[in-house]
Design goal:
About 40% of the residues lie in helices and about 20% in strands. The chain has about 140 residues and is of the alpha+beta class. Strands 1-2-4-3 form a four-stranded mixed sheet, with no helix packed on it. Strands 5-7-6 form a three-stranded antiparallel sheet. Helix 2 crosses helix 5 and helix 3 crosses helix 5.
Length: about 140
């Protein structure tokens, strides 16, 4: 039983949440897939990361048709160096805060921006976002 079908730029794979699974590859309807298994202990280590994305994805999804390209570009211009969520929202304050967050989270989801703190700390006004060129 497969828990998730994962689509990434380098191809599709299958994700199984079970430490007992020993599959490395699977073929479904003639299509080969790499298989990744994750144990409960490994998954628990990513609780904060998962919880943050549980908060981020609904914003992206519910606002996807409301975020203009001009706002995406404004957020990109603003995030030239690491900057806190509170500063981003303040700088773009004429726009609705939820739409600003949706633009920010969309760029994060696309990989244009990153926020390493999201791996270890809950999303907050203090969370810093940076361009992917700023990754260290």
């Amino acid at each position: 039983m497969v828990d998730y079908w994962v689509r990434k730029s380098d191809g599709d794979s299958l994700l199984i949440l079970d430490e007992e699974c020993r599959l490395l590859n699977a073929v479904i309807s003639g299509t080969p897939y790499a298989v990744t298994t994750i144990s409960h202990a490994e998954l628990t280590a990513f609780d904060v990361w998962v919880e943050n994305w549980e908060r981020i994805l609904p914003v992206i999804t519910s606002c996807r048709t409301l975020v203009p390209d001009t706002l995406l570009k404004s957020v990109q211009r603003l995030v030239r160096e690491p900057i806190q969520l509170s500063h981003i929202e303040r700088e773009l304050s004429p726009a609705e805060p939820t739409i600003v967050r949706a633009a920010l989270f969309t760029l994060l989801h696309r990989g244009t921006l990153h926020a390493p703190q999201l791996m270890t700390e809950p999303l907050s006004f203090l969370t810093q976002f940076a361009t992917t060129e700023d990754k260290s």
